[in-house]
Design a protein that fits this description.
The complex is a heterodimer of chains A (about 325) and B (about 200). Chain A contains eleven helices and nine strands. In chain A, the strands form two sheets. In chain A, strands 7-6-5-8-9 form a five-stranded parallel sheet, with helices on one face. In chain A, strands 2-1-3-4 form a four-stranded parallel sheet, with helices on both faces. Chain A is about 35% helix and about 15% strand. In chain B, β2, α2 and β3 form a beta-alpha-beta unit. Classes of the chains: A alpha/beta (about 325), B alpha/beta (about 200).
Chain lengths: ~325, ~200
């Protein structure tokens, strides 16, 4: 495995291997004062964040540092990007500076794929990890969601996962649909028609516009943030109406079975798509998702950067 | 020392010679348990806290069995767990990647304890070095000892075992295979003149 560009590239075996290793990383660090493994000693990991991020950037940085890699953060402000340097030139510069892995978040869909193509050289170039590209994919988020569901429910296979909200602008939804169906889950999308993408009929999912009808049969509910920054039109009449029809309120939480797990990729808009009390309830796995995010990203770095040659445990582009 | 020539009847394994039979394996584990009790003065009133840590996969099984024997002989419950060393190996970038194994450190940790590392075969000593590095990150044991079922020689590092089930002179081209009931369905240690260091 050389790059991780999309969850749709992951075979079931490759995804399972990453999830298994993420659990092992959690075990290996459990209860330790010294959270440091020598596994990536001498490797250089550079994160390139062209969009704001707290969780993803921090957890990639923590993952790299706990494995003893040298982690360097480049953000669009404070680098030559602000002076107008192109993505390609920045990437080639970072390759020349000795990056073993490039982790990229970019507002343009396909940016990670482009980066992998541009930085290819005779030795193969750095490994590229997609940390979110436009409305396309965010594979490590899907992996950590799958891991959280597996930990809470025992398995992913056969579970009914309801994804609610702004599907249209959500790379998290796309990656999750792909990965969860690869792992054998049944995925239901709930959204207003205006927030569903064209072509959703071809996805391996059931589509519904009625949240209350879908909650009783759910094993896991994944709430999405309404991405106002990507909205250039009127997708729903008002925030209040959206919240009433598609928000996970306390009353709706009560309609869920006791063991149903509530996920949110963050950042949460409390009171919009999720009620504050629901976000803090015992069924909410929001903070478990963050911890899992670190372990999943350690597993991904391990699979991409460790081992002779680039033949990893799974075979991805 | 070669104990017996044993034909397994399995094609391709006819040259596989038995070093320890099922009864030998059981006796050897009992002996190691007795030696641990004696050497660490486990049955004394001021006995140290002893923790057994097996190196996956068969070291973990052996650690569990040794703990059972110690309970039987000395009526002491030894905390035992698993220590995966994959992330500490020095050959990670020279070999194909391998899946990680489980780590479980017994409650109470290893600080100030006498940690006994348990592995099936002691060969180059590199696994043990990795385990020592891992221990350093987990805590500060009062003492670290090493127990192995088979010592086959060819050390590449200044490491020796405190408890050895059986010393076996081998050639580097030979392959020592340890099979245990829990993982392989049978207790048996054998040597084959092929393969080299596959483990």
């Amino acid at each position: 495995m050389k790059h991780l560009l999309a969850a749709s590239d992951l075979s079931r075996d490759a995804a399972t291997a990453i999830l298994d290793d993420a659990d092992k990383f959690r075990q290996a660090l459990l209860g330790r004062d010294v959270k440091k493994l020598p596994t990536l000693r001498g490797r250089t990991v550079i994160t390139m964040f062209y969009e704001n991020s707290t969780r993803t950037r921090v957890s990639f940085e923590v993952a790299g540092k706990w494995m003893s890699a040298d982690v360097i953060n480049v953000s669009s402000s404070g680098s030559s990007v602000a002076k107008g340097e192109s993505l390609r030139d920045t990437a080639l510069t970072l390759r020349a500076a000795g990056a073993d892995a490039l982790i990229i978040r970019h507002p343009a869909s396909g940016a990670a794929q482009q980066l992998a193509a541009w930085t290819l050289d005779e030795q193969g170039g750095p490994s590229v990890i997609n940390a979110g590209d436009g409305t396309h994919e965010h594979p490590t988020q899907a992996l950590l969601d799958a891991l959280t569901i597996r930990q809470r429910l025992g398995s992913v296979e056969g579970k009914r996962v309801v994804i609610v909200g702004d599907i249209l602008h959500s790379r998290v939804a796309r990656s999750n649909v792909s990965l969860l169906s690869t792992l054998g889950a049944e995925v239901v999308l709930v959204a207003p028609p205006t927030l569903l993408p064209v072509g959703v009929d071809d996805w391996p999912v059931t589509v519904s516009h009625n949240l209350d009808a879908e909650l009783p049969a759910a094993d896991a509910v994944l709430m999405l943030r309404v991405q106002a920054e990507r909205m250039n039109g009127a997708f729903f009449p008002s925030a209040r109406e959206y919240s009433v029809r598609y928000g996970l309120s306390e009353k709706r939480l009560a309609a869920l079975a006791d063991n149903v797990v509530v996920l949110h990729p963050g950042p949460m808009l409390r009171g919009m798509e999720i009620a504050s009390s629901v976000a803090d309830s015992s069924q909410s796995a929001v903070l478990q998702q963050v911890s899992n995010g670190v372990h999943v990203r350690m597993a991904v770095l391990f699979h991409l950067l460790v081992g002779a040659g680039s033949e990893g445990l799974g075979v991805v582009s | 020392m070669i104990v017996a020539v044993h034909d397994t009847g399995v094609p391709g394994e006819s040259a596989d010679r038995e070093l320890l039979s099922a009864a030998d394996v059981s006796r050897t584990i009992s002996r190691i348990a007795h030696q641990i009790i004696e050497k660490t003065a486990l049955d004394a009133p001021d006995a140290p806290r002893v923790v057994l840590l097996g190196i996956p996969t068969r070291g973990v099984t052996l650690a569990t069995r040794i703990a059972e024997k110690v309970r039987e002989f000395a009526d002491v419950d030894l905390p035992h767990g698993a220590l995966d060393i994959t992330l500490y190996r020095d050959d990670l970038n020279f070999k194909p990647p391998r899946p990680l194994e489980s780590t479980s450190i017994p409650t109470g940790g290893i600080d100030d304890a006498t940690v006994i590392l348990v592995d099936d075969v002691l060969y180059s000593g590199r696994s043990v070095r990795s385990a020592l590095d891992a221990l350093r990150d987990i805590g500060r044991p009062r003492m670290v000892q090493l127990a192995v079922l088979v010592d086959r020689g060819h050390r590449e590092l200044p490491i020796r075992a405190d408890y050895v089930g059986k010393n076996v002179p081998t050639s580097r081209s030979e392959n020592v295979k340890v099979r245990l009931l829990e993982t392989d369905g049978t207790d048996r240690v054998s040597i084959a003149p092929y393969g080299g260091p596959t483990r």
